[in-house]
Amino acid sequence: MREAKKILYAPLSSGHALECYSCEYGTCMVQLKENCGILEVCATETAKVKKGCMNPLNCLTDSSVTFAGATMTSSPSCCYSSLCNAAAVPKVSVMSGMAAMFALWVSRWF
Fold this sequence. Notes:
The chain is α+β, with helices and mostly antiparallel strands.
């Protein structure tokens, strides 16, 4: 319960909105900065290869992505200070990602 309270009240403790790195899918080579809403925290979602602001309640929820019939699930990693989500998102080339997803899809049939 303490972790949930920390997540819910962390953005309010500083008195101002956070600034987070923001990128999506193949654009994470160049990370932009994004100003969050007063109740949002910084997050990194590896399954979606995404960074940005997030409602802190979503920090407790798994997310999933389905591609070619294969589903990948991960939990978002949230942090509570400005630009705290700077860690590199795993870099996967489009071809490598498509090959991995195709292999997962094929493996479901055999």
